[in-house]
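Quick bug: Orotidine 5'-phosphate decarboxylase output formatted oddly.
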Amino acid sequence: MINKLITRIKETNAPIVVGLDPMMKFVPEYIKKAAFTEYGETLEGAAEAIWQYNKGIVDAIYDLVPAVKPQVAMYEQFGIPGMVAFKKTVDYCKEKGLIVIGDIKRGDIGSTSEAYAVGHLGKVQVGSKSYYGFDEDFVTVNPYLGSDGVNPFVKICKEEKKGIFVLVKTSNPSSGEFQDQLVNGRPLYELVGEKVAAWGADCMGDSYSYVGAVVGATYPEQGKVLRKVMPKAFILVPGYGAQGGKGADLVHFFNEDGLGAIINSSRGIIAAYQQEKYAQFGEQNYADASRAAVLDMREDIAQALAAR
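Here's what came back:
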């Protein structure tokens, strides 16, 4: 799957992943009204609204970007109906040729981590048959429990030719409370980066590993260091746009080949119509605003890479 991701990045000239993180305040009123008319102001109504909202965005941007990243919590909050909407979103995106990165941030003891890995990337055995559960192409993984929590994902990656992105240096302001702590004189995130490189060493695609890393755009200097620590790991970079990251901050996340990183923007794209810059589209044309935001982001990143 890492080879497919790289191919799609080259085809679209867009190292971009769109975060499908729907919140009800982002969903246009006309979509909510239609969903509530059919299902009432219920969990089912909310799930229908976010599904229709997602579908509109995907229809508008699928030809521009290689991948999407649905954040599972935004669906889980609506219970079982929300998780049905999550699965519908995953399946629809794959039908459109998009690579799906499930932002699930899982990581637990061995047997539990194995169940997470099977449920999201692999097949579960049911009697004499086996079935894919959510069937994303990549997922995000929390390494805090060490190799016990990560190895089950690596095993499934090898079996299914899928991938993971391990949290290394996250984009949130308080990430340094733990991630920047010094261990034998080195920040913890560097040690985690070294483990990512080790986990991925025997899990390689043609030029990059199935085991990637998450490093926030809001920490470009750390990204520069981690790029050297993990030369064969693809880096998923959240924090562009709404969290303050911009194209000029991102150049160090890429290797000399112009690859090695994929930049995430969530509400900066999916709620673009609520920004002053794209307000002329209006909520009826929210998906067209998202498309315009993707085009602007692609240009911003291209200019930054050309200038480095």
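Actually, after a second look the formatting is fine. The mean pLDDT is 94. Closing.
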